[in-house]
Specification:
single chain; 3 helices; 142 residues; mainly alpha
């Protein structure tokens, strides 16, 4: 339960209470207008409590998600699953890994003219970023 009393969660709790009370107050106000003869206000009198219910639903879903904690690895994973580099996405039955398409040149290959020093350094940087997926650009040792 300590996870729900961080400063960020306290702001979420307060925002939820303020929004729910505000939406219910607006619904009550619309009921008063509707009984005074404004027929359109009956729709709003129903709509505002629905908004309050939606806020409660989202808040409750986020509380359950926070209490559930980080995702645990499936028991059916192969034994060598720990050998995979950290930060690599793992495909599961409910969350497939989607990767960007690879573009392949269809024209004839150009002759290798030799690499520019800046281009070689940039390619080394890109290789390093690819090999270290969780790293930030500022972590680059080169």
């Amino acid at each position: 339960m300590r996870r729900l009393w961080t400063p960020a969660w306290i702001v979420r709790h307060v925002a939820m209470v303020v929004l729910v009370l505000g939406f219910l107050g607006l619904g009550w106000w619309q009921i008063g207008r509707a009984t005074a003869g404004n027929a359109l206000s009956w729709g709003y009198a129903v709509e505002w409590p629905v908004f309050a219910g939606f806020v409660i639903f989202v808040w409750w879903r986020e509380v359950r998600h926070a209490l559930r904690g980080p995702a645990r690895p499936d028991a059916g994973e192969p034994a060598d699953a720990g050998a995979r580099p950290a930060g690599r996405p793992v495909a599961t039955a409910t969350r497939p890994v989607v990767r960007r398409p690879v573009r392949v040149a269809r024209g004839p290959a150009t002759a290798d003219v030799g690499e520019d020093a800046d281009l070689a350094a940039y390619n080394h940087y890109l290789r390093w970023l690819n090999d270290n997926p969780g790293a930030q650009p500022g972590d680059y040792p080169g």
